[in-house]
Known about the structure:
Number of helices: 28
Order of helices and strands: HHHHHHHHHHHHHHHHHHHHHHHHHHHH
Strand content: under 5%
CATH topology of the largest domain: Methane Monooxygenase Hydroxylase, Chain G, domain 1
Shape: elongated
CATH architecture of the largest domain: Up-down Bundle
Low-confidence stretches: 1-15, 230-235, 437-444, 539-545, 605-609
Helix content: over 70%
Radius of gyration: 30 Å
Largest sheet: none
Structural class: mainly alpha
Amino acid sequence: xxxxxxxxxxxxxxxxxxxxxxxxxxxxxxxxxxxxxxxxxxxxxxxxxxxxxxxxxxxxxxxxxxxxxxxxxxxxxxxxxxxxxxxxxxxxxxxxxxxxxxxxxxxxxxxxxxxxxxxxxxxxxxxxxxxxxxxxxxxxxxxxxxxxxxxxxxxxxxxxxxxxxxxxxxxxxxxxxxxxxxxxxxxxxxxxxxxxxxxxxxxxxxxxxxxxxxxxxxxxxxxxxxxxxxxxxxxxxxxxxxxxxxxxxxxxxxxxxxxxxxxxxxxxxxxxxxxxxxxxxxxxxxxxxxxxxxxxxxxxxxxxxxxxxxxxxxxxxxxxxxxxxxxxxxxxxxxxxxxxxxxxxxxxxxxxxxxxxxxxxxxxxxxxxxxxxxxxxxxxxxxxxxxxxxxxxxxxxxxxxxxxxxxxxxxxxxxxxxxxxxxxxxxxxxxxxxxxxxxxxxxxxxxxxxxxxxxxxxxxxxxxxxxxxxxxxxxxxxxxxxxxxxxxxxxxxxxxxxxxxxxxxxxxxxxxxxxxxxxxxxxxxxxxxxxxxxxxxxxxxxxxxxxxxxxxxxxxxxxxxxxxxxxxxxxxxxxxxxxxxxxxxxxxxxxxxxxxxxxxxxxxxxxxxxxxxxxxxxxxxxxxxxxxxxxxxxxxxxxxxxxxxxxxxxxxxxxxxxxxxxxxxxxxxxxxxxxxxxxxxxxxxxxxxxxxxxxxxxxxxxxxxxxxxxxxxxxxxxxxxxxxxxxxxxxxxxxxxxxxxxxxxx
Length: 746
């Protein structure tokens, strides 16, 4: 037994440092870089002997082939490289001019770094180009040169861009969006299989297996979506639709699971219900087919079947009551049917978003849910860009915090390098860029890893340079190996190994450009230590708790905004006209900020004390509440309003206030403003009694009652469901609060 623990530790260490390269993406990047960069670098160096041109060719090729590496269709990929080449050239010019004076260099770095980091909110190619564009500017501003060097620098950047563009089109192109769509299609099919099992009443064991399979498919999609640099997440209409599709699948799974668990044995066996269930299955399979390149789902058929089911359910309720049926039994049937319609509303949204995400338009005449990005063209794009900026420029936005942190870190690094007169100031700034993370703990750990990796690279690279001396051929032979390792190891093996490999690459490159021997490696160790130290100080001063604190605040804002939206929607349904557009817009923006904070939490280099499942549940609950508010809007648009039945309406309104108080209490707890425990909880019995009473009155006077009994019945069901969700969130909120209050170093 004494040797078991060391053996186990050795196995764990081996697994941790073994390459992990799903889809061989890192291998493709590294092989492409190893083939192209050394050849281009050697041709320019030996053909021109121009240090500025050679430097920007070398680092530009590495940045665009390895750090950007755009995917997607060939035309989109080429366009992305062309735009990045143009923007990078402008940044090279701006950086070179700004580098003439220290204070201008610092101010320009602050502004450019903030703008480039903030551009990540547009998702897709904008996010993928961030590091390459930052590198272009940082290299220009941190290595002072006269304005006469601008043509050579720009030429080097554009030459690197041209080679990277051609390489991306012909050498092992990557298709991350295609992989994401396949994940989403599989999740649609798994959800359809769950609904089909419930429809045919396949039995508890089969339904549970289908639930597990659907849950695994949804989690796989969300995990890959969060980890994909080119994930569709920006304000373009198709990207916005795909982002909503990911949320729709989570909602759909939640609703389908609840529907499967709560199906009443005595629910009315209406033909229209079975037809609607079949339409749900067909729509989900159609959404999956559309994501794989097939035709879009038939949303018009689903919309019609949804309407027919509602009408049939109400006819059944009226007929049963007239025949003397118990109001309580009718209420159970209505509640079961309403849960199915709630699920159908979520599936309609999912199908519409799948259609738009694949570049097509939903069928005309279909009343789409409120969250669907309806407007296309330039006007729609401008509207979505403005919405994204409103969301992420709010004071509590994790994206804003990250942008400010990155800008401050790089600006301070430039200032320190200039004040100290460092010869290789670029390495100091690059060190800051490479380790700055979203919280102080992650930055501190990455700082230690960066220094350790740099020392390891120096320990390998320096003896190699001493061994080969001035034999440039041997150094040229080593260059492809160094490029491959520097491109492959950071993502496939470990950050420490990547830093070691990049240090070796720097030693090799600079001994080819301007031979300086092994001392280049020593200078890099010193400069990296300074740059990473700057990152650590900035991380300590600016929001050191990082995404977990941002997420807590974002969730507080989300629940507060959702409560306001639900309050307005319920008031509109029960009491009269209220404008719900602005409360809904605020709730959607708050959900966007919470989603951004959650994504940031997923990519932090720390073990999360709060875990991942708890934040996912809390964000998903906010999305579900917005869906309920949207469904209330659908009821109003279909003519459902409360008129008369004052006693029953008063009961429902009181229970609605209690439910909203519960949501606001969670918001206050998350925001650090503890409220007194709610004195009275939502009463399911009171809601059922009010709904059943209104149904009995409807049976006595169906013409005079109008739609008020159905309005109260549907409203009571929604309030009860929201109250159940709120109660289930109590434990998760406590976990999130404890994690956010923990010291930053834990």
